[in-house]
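Duplicate of #3305? Posting structure anyway:
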């Protein structure tokens, strides 16, 4: 359902949810890059060759996926709740 502009500076829950979800890609990329950089730093300090870069990247990917799933489930619950409220309001009138 597309939300209609109200012409006022009222909060729009659907738009707010979409902005949070649009930031999901940036969040995932930053978590993967953070894991890669931490792995690279450990490789430099310990003198190992590419071992910790791979480990850090895989851990960053796992953390990013878990984070993405949590955000998506939360957004879905909120959307379902708003949908049910709209259905109840429509049936009451």
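Output from current build:
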């Amino acid at each position: 359902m597309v939300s209609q502009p109200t012409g006022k500076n009222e909060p729009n829950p659907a738009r707010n949810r979409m902005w949070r979800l649009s930031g999901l890609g940036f969040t995932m990329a930053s978590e993967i890059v953070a894991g890669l950089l931490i792995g690279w730093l450990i490789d430099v300090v310990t003198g190992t060759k590419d071992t910790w870069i791979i480990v850090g990247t895989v851990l960053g990917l796992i953390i990013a996926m878990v984070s993405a799933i949590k955000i998506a489930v939360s957004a879905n619950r909120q959307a379902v709740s708003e949908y049910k409220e709209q259905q109840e309001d429509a049936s009451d009138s």
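Confirmed duplicate; merging threads. Residues 51-92 form the longest helix (42 residues). The chain has a mean pLDDT of 86.
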